[in-house]
Amino acid sequence: MVRYTISEIAKLCGTSPATVSRVLNNPGLVAEPLRDRIRKKMEEVGYKPNPFASRLSSQSRWGLALFVFDILNPFFALIVRKIGHLAMEQRIPLTVCDTENNEEKERIYLDYLLDNKIAGIIFAEGISIPTIERAQQQTETVLIDRHYREGLISEVTSDNYMGGRQATEYLLQLNHRNIGFIGGPSNWSSAEERLRGYRETLEENEIPFRKEMVFPGDLRFESGVRALEYFLTLPEWPSAIFSANDQMAFGVLSKANSLNISIPEDLSLIGFDDIPVYNLYTTILTAVRQDIDALCTTAFEIMLSKLNGESAGFEDGSEESRTVIPTTLKIGETCSKYTGSPARRVQRNG
Amino acid sequence: MVRYTISEIAKLCGTSPATVSRVLNNPGLVAEPLRDRIRKKMEEVGYKPNPFASRLSSQSRWGLALFVFDILNPFFALIVRKIGHLAMEQRIPLTVCDTENNEEKERIYLDYLLDNKIAGIIFAEGISIPTIERAQQQTETVLIDRHYREGLISEVTSDNYMGGRQATEYLLQLNHRNIGFIGGPSNWSSAEERLRGYRETLEENEIPFRKEMVFPGDLRFESGVRALEYFLTLPEWPSAIFSANDQMAFGVLSKANSLNISIPEDLSLIGFDDIPVYNLYTTILTAVRQDIDALCTTAFEIMLSKLNGESAGFEDGSEESRTVIPTTLKIGETCSKYTGSPARRVQRNG
DNA sequence: TTGTATGCGTTATCAA
DNA sequence: TTGATAACGCATACAA
């Protein structure tokens, strides 16, 4: 359990500490035989660099952080899991910051990370703009599924607009004309885009967009429950509901169940995300699938290239990239062709 | 954005770096007027210590890690959230390690953390013994809801045995005699304890324990679905089911729903954990509540005292503590008095 | 291609 | 109570 230092390795190999340091950071600068000898020796004695000494000397920042606003939401839990593994593969410490949708918590986490010279921060959807802007001035940043002003911060998002279209077009194909939409918080760009896809698809098909068919949710299960309750107060009930995420869709499903509204016979339902966890439910949700792995992998790669300084030098900010990951429609069991008056059975119970 | 150093602060205050360092680490050693002057100056220029220099010089370890086996499980997500906040309050970086129940991942995470001189690791239930043992030899460790050999590692657990008793006694009071149990993996001490509580309570009430009434689950939603399917293959169906966690209980609930088995009329159901998220479900689960906040807070405090060396010096290991947090029974809507033949309605569909 | 020497910002040991 | 000064382990500018 004794820790070796580069000087000791150097002595053992009859060379200088500088050379050992080079094989660690710039192997190309060391002649091959020497390099191999040093590497073998390090292996042999189990040498591990001291990260503190290394960072102190190189003056570099260290570590990554990931901000999510609700770790209980499986979509974000999956992001935490994936980014966690990617970071570990690169031996980069990752601090997970669950802000619980609270700006004060965001501020505290951020202060703390900046004090600790964090090398970069990945923000998932749901983090407030002031926090992101402040971070962006002092460290590397990448956004997942969140849109900021064009070209100022690198972002990786699903094609939320097209996803919104896919869902709506599918329902239209099934002859639904009266489609309810359950949205997200109004400052969430991803949910806004899904709404835009929904709206424009309707209008292109000459179905007027009616704002009473949009229920403002908060992406949680309960919002789905509330949304269905709300839609049932309308004079004309929707025959289909498109929810901006899976959790709310399951709220609808659960509430429908308890009201004896059967899905998809009485009501068609389509979600957004397609979280694998939910496939275990007895009813398989039809949903627009986001490719979470691709979102995370791409965001992480962008971050790595930033850390390696590969995009430095452009002072106009134009090197910030915007990557859009396509969505796909996964057909489950919760949509059916519209044939007549909606939700007849409900009227007995409602 | 210029970073000040202690030497600069010293110069500004007309003193030496050593003194400035003292007000940071040992304020008692510096006379009050000088101390206040230095503090004011640090405040004024926004001085932040360089963590790398500090760690290098003091040779101390740094940071904490938290191992969970499945971050998608809300019970563990809540632990991640709580420990994350506690760590942040203490300005201690926390690395969350989601091992996905995979020993190889555990090994990689652990290697990485030890290389980075992690100061301590908190293990939640579900992490394998070899990983814990290896960690314990090289860094501070605390277990949450996991039992290891007596007195060797500090642990904080719910009173799983009593929880098992509480649930079983409650069902017995409701006249249930035929109670199914859905367990966890056999090497999970917490689930084993719940089973023991169930078993002993039955036997004390002269109801024979029958092993066919125990379904081995894996704590996931789907296990609950499978469990109910299994119980319905038995010649004599249980009139009540006690699940070792909430997720599996919801699997039962969901499956029961699709089979037209109504809960609690046809079948009583009781879970374990009482995760707040689930309260949003239309049906409120009756469950044994674990006090997650207390589990986390206690575990974290123990870790802090270890980091401060407060329990050092005992070489026989006897300073390792074992804290048991009581559980309570939360009455929801999923249990009712047993009055006759079980699940009559099922027989029409089953 | 390799070695020497210096500095990174702190902490800690010794004297004063 | 305070001040010099030597580590801590590594990276790097410069010299060889």
Would you write up a description of this structure?
Two copies of one chain form a homodimer. In chain A, the strands form two sheets. The first copy, chain A, has a six-stranded parallel β-sheet with strand order 2-1-3-4-5-11, sandwiched between helices. In chain A, strands 7-6-8-9-10-12 form a six-stranded mixed β-sheet, with helices on both faces. Chain A is built from 13 helices and twelve strands. Chain A has 350 residues and is an alpha/beta fold. In chain A, helix 1 crosses helix 2 (17-25). At the A-B interface, helix 4, helix 5, strand 2, helix 6 and helix 10 of A face helix 4, helix 5, strand 2, helix 6 and helix 10 of B. The structure holds a DNA duplex (16 and 16 nucleotides).
Report how far apart the termini of chain A are.
Answer: 71 Å
**Largest sheet geometry of chain A:** 6 strands, parallel
CATH topology of the largest domain in chain A: Rossmann fold
Count of β-strands of chain A? 12
How are the strands of the largest sheet of chain A arranged?
Answer: 2-1-3-4-5-11
Overall pLDDT of chain A: 88
Net shape of chain A: elongated
The low-confidence runs of chain A, each spanning 5 or more residues with pLDDT under 50, are: 312-317, 342-350
Keywords for this entry:
elongated; 3 domains; disordered C terminus; Rossmann fold; alpha/beta; 350 residues; DNA-binding; homodimer; 6-stranded mixed β-sheet; 6-stranded parallel β-sheet; 12 strands
